[in-house]
Task: structure prediction
Amino acid sequence: MFHKGEVPFVRLLIPLIMGISLGFYFPHPLLLKLRIIAALFVLAIFFLLLITYRQYSLYRYTWIFGLLIPLFILYQAYGLTVYRSGQFDDKHFSSQSPDGLIIQIRNEPKFSKGILRFESAVMENIEGNKTSSVTGKLLFSVQMDSICQLSLNYGDILLVPPLHNEVEPPYNPGEFNYKDYLANHQIYHQTFLTQDQVRIIKPRAGDAVITFSLNLRQKLVRKFHYYLPDKEAAALASTLILGYRAELNKELINAYSKTGTMHVLSVSGMHVGIVFLVLTEVLKPMDKNKRLRLIRAFLIVSVIWFYALLTGFSSPVCRAAVMLSFFVFGKALNKNQNTYNLIAISAFFLLLYNPYYLADAGFQLSYLAVVGLVYFHPKIYQAFFIRNRILDQIWSYSALSIAAQLATFPISLYYFHQFPVYFLISNLLIVLPVAIIMYAGIVFLFIPFIFIVQYLGMFLNWLINFSNSLIYHIENLPFASWGGIWISSSQFILLYAILGCAVLKISFERKILFPLSAFLLILTACFSFTTWINHNRHEMIFFSLKKNSVLAYLFQGKAIVISDLDSLNQLHSFSTLPVLEARGQSVEKFFASGSGFAGASYFANANFLQFADFRLIKWDRNFKNFLFTGRLKVNTVLISGNPTVTLSGIKTCIDFDSIIIDGTNPDYKIREWEIEAARMKIPCYVLKKNPAYIVKL
Result:
């Protein structure tokens, strides 16, 4: 395949990734403080070895140098990651109690449903008449006035009250971990303010280039909306070409996701790659000598970074631009430069710039896809020889799609829990329209002639709607998406281990039958055991929600859900369905709270529910109209809907073993019931801001 000397940065990237990973999972302040001493110690040993290299014939022990350098990189990567996290920073704003905060808006604010959201960097604490420099980031949600809205933009410096809370973890199993997501962006606190609590000190004080970039993008987005009559088409054009996703509807996003074409809506490597391919073809005559190749490389990289500017310097586009910049200049300087080494160089320096890119799903998918394309595409493409030029081009792109899917499907399953069955068809059908939309869209944005812009806008509008109709049609085909696939970390590793064995067999022709068979056997056993466990689950789940009451009964691989929410409410998609899918359960029926229903192993009549041998009373405001002719025996009483009752009052007519209090009750009532339960020595569980309560039956 290639000699290890051709890929030095691949070898250096491994300890860098290991060090960053250790920093994620095992941060420690002492190890952080010792990083400089450790660096000086390793460097001293290194220079000592260099000085005594000939004297002691150290060329016979080259493994010493091979060990020192990775260890140095690993420890420094660990220290850099822990330092960037800000967890042990004494100047972090959360460690102090000021009278006010001075913050700066660090991204483009997004407005939705009367709330303006943005990330900010905390610059100073205010205590009396004094200010002190602090560090840290804060996530803001500002309730805007419906009549007279305050205009907030990137770079604005604001004075705000020091009201903030830690970001809450997910309380239901399988729920998206927003706390970890924000932690990977070094955000640990959030705040909710009204517009009246925010005061602008200095407007538009951010980086001049980024400010210009964001303003230019907004101007171009407005142009799309002005000339494209269909709102959905204008939103997709803004997303596809400029990376502006604020106005894209969720139905369209789901359609692209289920058909395996989500990369079209994520302005990143694919879009930068399209720009790169066009420029490469146009400037092909300049590939005659090294000087012309360098000029061509400079032109290509300049245009790529100009495109990054148009997208507001979004992180995915910048990462793709950095990757291609290294690739273009590397090939210009040395046409025989190893491609894997160029990819590793870009990853190495990006991770040095921000170690937390490693935890970004987009970063992982981008690099896995690129490596997959470079390695698998030629092998898949060469498997069939096609004489017809058009069919050969179709097969080449098909091989590209298969290569990218092969390299990324384990991580896609791990993160997104679905597999697009018709990914090859959808990608083949969408690639040409998307390329035309991109080229025509970029021309549309910069043509000053109104009569041409009007016709081009109508053409773009038609082509985008045509592309969307294709995607919607494929989404509605039978078995278009295999959803609800939840794999564990060990299964994820096993899938890549099997893929690694295949690579070893193809590249080095090694005998890997035994490890491959072992990995396949273990993976099959894991899937079989998980399926058996899920089918035999018999449990009740009381979901932890802030303002609603939802519970589910799981049995024989099925689930019934009882909720005070409508079945189409988005909260179910975020909090309820992930729990059930992660447990391998399909929702058999959905019932409204207080309704009557019955099945082979469950029964409900108004507020009395029974699931197998588990009996439950849901005590809400309706109980003031009920009369009990005798004492009722249940396992649990669920207090919901803020009833005016005491536990001793419930005890007069019902015998129960425990109390569950859901999130529909006010905090002061919950505290009263907790105190009373402790006094009566009754087990009590509060769902609000606590993990979901699971009862094994």
About this structure: The mean pLDDT is 86.
